[in-house]
TrEMBL record, chain A:
Region (Disordered): 67-109, 170-351, 365-456
Main location: nucleus
InterPro entries assigned to the protein according to its UniProt record, in alphabetical order: POLD3 (IPR019038), POLD3_sf (IPR041913)
PANTHER family: DNA POLYMERASE DELTA SUBUNIT 3 (PTHR17598)
Gene3D superfamilies: DNA polymerase delta, p66 (Cdc27) subunit, wHTH domain
UniProt protein name: DNA polymerase delta subunit 3
Stretches with biased composition (Basic and acidic residues): 254-270, 321-341, 398-411
From TrEMBL, chain B:
Catalytic activities: DNA(n) + a 2'-deoxyribonucleoside 5'-triphosphate = DNA(n+1) + diphosphate
Superkingdom in the source lineage: Eukaryota
Family: Belongs to the DNA polymerase delta/II small subunit family.
Domain (DNA polymerase delta subunit OB-fold): residue spans on this chain: 48-184
EC number: 2.7.7.7
One GO term describing the cellular component: delta DNA polymerase complex
A Gene Ontology molecular function term of the record: DNA-directed DNA polymerase activity
InterPro entries: DNA_pol_a/d/e_bsu, DNA_pol_D_N, DNA_pol_delta/II_ssu, PolD2_C
Protein's recorded name: DNA-directed DNA polymerase
Organism: Coniosporium apollinis (strain CBS 100218) (Rock-inhabiting black yeast)
Domain DNA polymerase alpha/delta/epsilon subunit B: residue ranges: 221-451
CDD domains: MPP_PolD2_C (cd07387)
Biological process according to GO: DNA repair; lagging strand elongation
Keywords: DNA replication, DNA-directed DNA polymerase, Nucleotidyltransferase, Nucleus, Transferase
Length: 456, 498
C-alpha cells in the first residue's frame, strides 16, 4: 500500500518529474480514484514535513448555469424568425404557439459542467467561479509550481508512450476507465507470435524502438555469420517489428543517387502503414535480409557507412539525453528519437537476446573502427553518388568551418561523421518511421532541424 | 457556491474501498450513406453545375407550389386575383401573379470565376471577404428557373433571408422597370420527419423479426468540433481533459457515471488545424527550389495526424466515434467531403471495419462524410462541418447562426450556396444535398459559440438545432440527451490569474 510513497518520492522529489494521477495509476496498476487519493496523501504528508516541498495542481468540476442565448442575440433573432416563419407556416393561427415556444426555448437554461485545472495557490478564486462544486481532486503533483499548465500534457504523452503495449480492452479496467462491452475491434489475422490482439499496437508502438536498434545493429555487421546469429536471436522480436525492415531496406537500394533517397522514404512510409495492421512483416524481413545477404559492394559500403554513423550518433547523444530526459519532458519529446536510439539497453532485458546483442555490440564497436577506413575510401570513390548527404553536410559545416567537405582524407571523414549526428538523426526517424510512437516525438525535433537547414 | 457532499471524497487518504467498474451505455447507430460519392472511375467532374439547379428546382417546386397554392388561393388585390405563372418569363407586366424559382443573388463582392481566370493580371488577389454584401445596395436579387431570370424588388425582400440557391414562391407584379415587385413569398419549409426508430423498426420488420417494443434507455451523444490539433509543442491541455473525461478517469464518482452515460462521440470537422488543402504533387515539387535529400520534414509535418490518431485510439476502447471531416481536414475540399482515409489513423483503424468487410454493420470508429446523416439512438442526426453556414453567413446581414441553420432546414437544402460560392461535386441527376427527411437533431460544427434552439415545422416536426463551437477556442463539448433531446455542455479549461 505504501509503495506509492516510494514511487512518488523517487519521481517527484528526486527526479523532479510531474506525476499525474493517471501516471501513478498506471505505474502502480491501481484505480485512478485511488491514485488521486495517494497523490493527495503524499502531497499532504510531504508538505507537513517540509512546507512547500511539493506543489499540487487540482482539477475542480462543478456547474454553473449560463444563459445559452444571450439577450443581445436573442432579441433580433427572434424577430427575424418571426417575420420569416409568419409567411411560411401555412396555418397563421399557429403563430402564437410558435412564438410562445420560441420564447420558451431561447430562455432555456443550459447547464454547463466545467472542469477547471487550478494551481493550489489559486484554489480560492477558482472555487468562487462555481455555483456548485461536484468534485475536487489532485490532478498532478510536481516539485515546483508549473509556469505554464500546458506542460502537464506531457504526463499523458508519456503514458501513451510507456504503456502503449497494454491492451486497452483488458488492462484499462483496473484504472477505472469506463468499459464498453460492445466495442468492435479488428481481429487480427496475424500469423505467428502475438496471439493477443494488442500485439499489433503494442508492437507498433513499443517494440520497434528497442528492437529496431538491436536489429539494425545485428544486421549491420557484414559477416554473414553474425547476421544469421543475430537474426535467430532477434527473430522473436523481429516478427513484430517491421520498421526494422524499413530501416534496413533503404540502404540496400542505393542505385539512384539523387532520387533513391526520396524513394526510400516513401518505402518506409508504406511499410509504416503496413506495420500497424497487417502481418507482412516476415516477408519484408526476408527480402530485407536477402537483400543484405547478397549485397553489391557499393551497397554495403553505403549501408555500413550510414549505420555506423548512426551508431556514433547514439553514443554521442546518449549521455546528454539522459540528463535532460529525466527533467524536462518537453525536451525529451524533441529528443525522443535520440531516446529511441538510446534504448539500446532495453532489448537486453530479453534474456536470450542479451548476450548475442552484447557480443555483437562489442564486435561492432571493434569492427566499426576497422570498417571505417574502408568506408572512407569507398565514400571518396563513390563521392558523387552520395551527394545528397554531402549537401546536408555542407549546410551544416558552412556554419562553422568549411574545410570539411573539401578534404577527402580519412581523418576528415571521421570528424565529419562525428559532427554529423544532427542531420543523420533527421534521417533516422524516417527510416524507422513505423515506430509511430517514437517517431512522433522525433518528428518535432526533426522538423525543426530540417527546416533550419532547408533555409540555406 | 455550494459544495456537493461527495466533492472532496478524493481529498483523503487512500482507502480500501473498491471503486465500481462502470459500463458505458450502448449506442444504437445506423448511419446513412446519403453523401457518399461514387468511387474512382465513376466520379466525374466534367458535368455542368446547371444540372444541380434544375434537379433542385424540380424536386422542390411541387411542394412549394402546393404551399403557395394553399396560401394564396383567391388572394385579391383591388379586384385582381393572383394567378399562378409556370415560368419566370411568362410574367406579364402589371399582372398580379406568383411564380416559383431559384433565388440568385447578384453581388459585386461575390467571388467570380472570371476574376479567378484573370487573376494573373492582378498584383495580388483580393482577400477573402467576411460578407459579400456591398454597402451601397448594389446587390440584386433574382428569381430564376429554366426559362430565365426575373429581377426582384420590394420592401418585402428586406425582411427575408435569401441566398443564392434557395427556392421560393414569390407573389407580386412586374413594374414599369421590368422588375418583379414582391408582395409576399413562401418557402417549402421542413420536410417530413421520420418517427424515432423508424428505420430500425423497418429493418427489423423486413427481416421478419418482431418489432422490439422495449428498447434500453439511451444515453447521451457527445458532439465536439474544431479540435484543431496542430502539433505545436504546447498542444492543448483541454484535449487531455476531454479524453480523461470521456474515459471517466477525471472527476469523482458522480462525474464518472455522467461520463458513462455518453454513448457516442461525434467529431464535427476540423480535427486538424492546417491539413487542408492537401498540396498537389506539382506544388510539392515546385515549392522548394532544390530537391531535398529524402524525406523533407519542412514540407510535411506528421505530428498533428499522429496526435489525432492517438487521441482517437485512446478513446475508442471505451466509446464509439463518428468522425466528420471539415474545412481544415485532409479530405476533398468540395462538398460533400468524403470520409477521412483510414490510412491517416494507423492505430484507431483497428476499431474500424476493414474496407473489404461488407455488411459487418457500422464501424465502431466511423469515418464519415461531411455533411453526414444517420440514426443515433433512433433519432435522425444531420450534421456538417460548418461550411454551408459559414458561406450563408456571407450573404446575409445578421450574425445569428441559429437563424441561418433554421433557414437551411426550411429551404430543405444542406448547402444552398453550393455550387455558387461553395465548392461542391457536380451532381447530375439528383442532388443529395437536398434534405429529404427532416432530422431530429441538426448540428453544425466550428461555429463561433455554442447556441441551441428547438424549431418546429408545419406538421409538428421538432428539430433541435445546435451550433457547436470550436473546441480549441472554447473547450466546449456538447451533450445531447438521446431520450429528451435536451442539451448540456461540458467545458474544460485552466484557471489563469488575470
Amino acid at each position: 500500500m505504501d509503495k506509492y510513497k516510494e514511487f512518488l518520492a523517487l519521481n517527484v522529489l528526486n527526479e523532479e518529474r510531474i506525476i499525474s494521477y493517471r501516471a501513478l495509476s498506471r505505474a502502480l496498476k491501481v484505480h485512478t480514484h485511488l491514485a488521486k487519493q495517494m497523490l493527495y496523501a503524499f502531497h499532504h504528508d510531504e508538505n507537513a514535513k517540509r512546507p512547500g516541498s511539493v506543489h499540487a495542481t487540482y482539477i475542480i468540476a462543478g456547474t454553473k448555469a449560463i444563459q445559452t442565448v444571450p439577450q443581445t442575440n436573442g432579441g433580433p433573432s427572434q424577430r427575424s424568425t418571426n417575420s420569416f416563419t409568419q409567411p411560411s407556416s401555412p396555418p397563421l393561427s399557429s403563430m402564437p404557439d410558435q412564438d410562445g415556444q420560441e420564447d420558451h426555448e431561447s430562455d432555456e437554461n443550459i447547464t454547463t459542467t466545467r472542469f477547471l485545472l487550478v494551481r493550489e495557490e489559486d484554489m480560492k478564486e477558482a472555487k468562487a467561479q462555481f455555483d456548485e462544486i461536484t468534485s475536487i481532486h489532485v490532478y498532478t503533483i510536481e516539485p515546483t509550481p508549473p509556469k505554464d499548465l500546458q506542460v502537464l500534457t506531457n504526463c499523458n504523452r508519456e503514458i501513451q508512450k510507456e504503456y502503449a503495449n497494454e491492451d486497452p480492452l483488458k488492462d484499462w479496467r483496473q484504472y477505472g476507465t469506463i468499459q464498453n462491452p460492445n466495442v468492435k475491434r479488428r481481429t487480427n489475422r496475424r500469423p505467428p507470435p502475438p496471439a493477443a490482439p494488442i500485439a499489433t499496437t503494442a508492437a507498433a508502438k513499443m517494440a520497434p524502438r528497442p528492437s529496431s536498434t538491436t536489429i539494425a545493429k545485428s544486421t549491420e555487421p557484414p559477416p554473414a555469420k553474425r547476421r544469421k546469429s543475430s537474426e535467430s536471436a532477434a527473430s522473436a522480436s523481429r516478427a513484430s517489428t517491421p520498421q526494422v525492415d524499413a530501416a534496413a531496406i533503404p540502404p540496400s537500394k542505393p542505385e539512384a543517387k539523387a532520387k533513391a533517397p526520396t524513394l526510400k522514404r516513401d518505402k518506409s512510409d508504406i511499410f509504416k502503414s503496413f506495420a500497424k495492421s497487417k502481418p507482412p512483416k516476415p516477408k519484408k524481413r526476408d527480402t530485407a535480409s536477402s537483400a543484405e545477404a547478397t549485397p553489391a559492394p557499393e551497397d554495403e559500403a553505403m549501408k555500413d557507412a550510414s549505420e555506423d554513423e548512426q551508431e556514433e550518433d547514439f553514443a554521442l547523444t546518449a549521455p546528454t539525453v539522459d540528463d535532460k530526459a529525466a527533467r524536462q519532458a518537453r525536451k525529451e519529446r524533441e529528443e525522443a528519437l535520440r531516446n529511441m536510439m538510446e534504448d539500446e539497453d532495453e532489448p537486453m532485458d530479453d534474456a536470450p537476446e542479451m548476450q548475442a546483442v552484447a557480443e555483437q555490440q562489442a564486435t561492432l564497436i571493434d569492427s566499426k573502427a576497422e570498417e571505417e577506413p574502408e568506408q572512407k575510401e569507398e565514400v571518396t570513390v563513390s563521392g558523387g553518388r552520395r551527394r545528397g548527404r554531402r549537401r546536408v553536410m555542407k549546410k551544416k559545416t558552412a556554419k562553422d568551418e568549411e574545410g570539411y567537405l573539401v578534404t577527402k582524407e580519412e581523418p576528415v571523414w571521421e570528424s565529419f561523421s562525428e559532427d554529423e549526428p544532427v542531420p543523420k538523426k533527421a534521417k533516422v526517424p524516417v527510416s524507422s518511421g513505423s515506430a509511430a510512437k517514437g517517431k512522433k516525438g522525433a518528428k518535432a525535433g526533426q522538423g525543426n532541424i530540417m527546416s533550419f537547414f532547408g533555409k540555406k | 457556491m455550494a459544495v456537493a457532499e461527495t466533492a472532496d471524497s478524493l481529498l483523503q487518504r487512500p482507502s480500501d474501498n473498491a471503486f465500481p467498474i462502470l459500463d458505458r451505455v450502448p449506442s444504437s447507430y445506423n448511419p446513412l450513406s446519403t453523401f457518399i460519392l461514387p468511387k474512382g472511375e465513376d466520379r466525374h467532374y466534367t458535368q455542368q453545375f446547371a444540372d444541380m439547379y434544375f434537379a433542385r428546382l424540380a424536386r422542390v417546386k411541387p411542394a412549394v407550389e402546393q404551399i403557395a397554392e394553399e396560401a394564396w388561393e383567391g388572394f385579391e388585390i383591388a379586384g385582381e386575383t393572383a394567378r399562378r405563372v409556370d415560368r419566370a418569363l411568362d410574367v406579364r407586366q402589371g399582372e398580379l401573379c406568383w411564380v416559383v424559382g431559384t433565388v440568385y443573388m447578384e453581388m459585386p463582392l461575390k467571388p467570380n470565376i472570371l476574376d479567378d481566370l484573370s487573376k494573373e493580371h492582378w498584383i495580388s488577389a483580393p482577400p477573402d471577404r467576411e460578407k459579400y454584401i456591398s454597402p451601397g445596395g448594389k446587390d440584386e436579387t433574382m428569381l430564376e428557373d429554366e426559362s430565365g431570370r426575373l429581377r426582384l424588388t420590394g420592401q418585402h425582400l428586406q425582411s427575408q433571408m435569401l441566398v443564392t440557391g434557395c427556392i421560393i414562391a414569390a407573389m407580386g407584379t412586374e413594374n414599369a422597370d421590368g422588375a418583379f415587385e414582391v408582395i409576399d413569398s413562401r418557402i417549402v419549409d421542413l420536410p417530413r420527419q421520420p418517427e424515432r426508430w423508424e428505420r430500425d423498426d423497418e429493418a427489423l420488420a423486413l427481416t421478419g423479426k418482431s418489432v422490439k417494443k422495449q428498447r434500453p434507455e439511451s444515453g447521451k451523444v457527445a458532439i465536439v468540433s474544431g479540435l484543431e490539433i496542430s502539433g505545436d509543442a504546447a498542444d492543448n491541455l483541454n484535449l487531455d481533459l476531454l479524453t480523461e473525461y470521456l474515459l471517466g478517469e477525471v472527476s469523482s464518482s458522480p462525474g464518472r457515471s455522467d461520463a458513462a452515460q455518453i454513448s457516442r462521440l461525434v467529431i464535427a470537422g476540423n480535427s486538424l488545424a492546417h491539413a487542408s488543402p492537401i498540396p498537389t504533387r506539382d506544388e510539392l515539387a515546385t515549392k522548394k527550389g532544390g530537391k531535398k535529400y529524402g524525406y523533407d520534414a519542412s514540407t510535411y509535418n506528421p505530428t498533428p495526424t499522429e496526435h489525432l490518431d492517438d487521441f482517437l485510439a485512446a478513446l475508442l476502447p471505451s466509446i464509439p466515434i463518428t468522425l466528420l471531416p471539415g474545412t481544415s481536414d485532409p479530405a476533398n475540399v468540395a462538398l460533400p467531403q468524403q470520409p477521412l482515409h483510414h490510412a491517416l489513423f494507423p492505430h484507431s483503424r483497428e476499431y474500424a471495419n476493414r474496407p473489404t468487410e461488407e455488411g459487418a454493420g457500422p464501424s465502431w470508429f466511423d469515418s464519415v462524410t461531411n455533411p453526414w446523416e444517420g440514426d443515433v439512438d433512433g433519432w435522425r442526426f444531420l450534421g456538417t462541418g460548418g461550411q454551408p453556414i459559414d458561406d450563408v453567413f456571407k450573404y446575409v446581414a445578421g450574425e445569428d447562426r441559429l437563424d441561418m441553420m433554421e433557414h437551411l432546414l426550411r429551404w430543405r437544402c444542406n448547402a444552398p450556396t453550393a455550387p455558387d460560392t461553395l465548392w461542391c461535386y457536380p451532381f447530375q441527376m439528383q442532388d443529395p444535398l437536398l434534405i429529404k427527411d427532416c432530422p431530429h437533431v441538426y448540428f453544425v460544427g466550428n461555429q463561433p459559440r455554442f447556441e441551441t434552439r428547438v424549431i418546429d415545422g408545419p406538421a409538428g416536426q421538432l428539430v433541435r438545432i445546435i451550433a457547436v463551437p470550436k473546441f480549441r477556442e472554447t473547450g466546449v463539448l456538447v451533450l445531447v440527451d438521446a431520450e429528451t433531446l435536451g442539451v448540456e455542455c461540458v467545458q474544460f479549461g485552466t484557471f489563469d490569474r488575470g
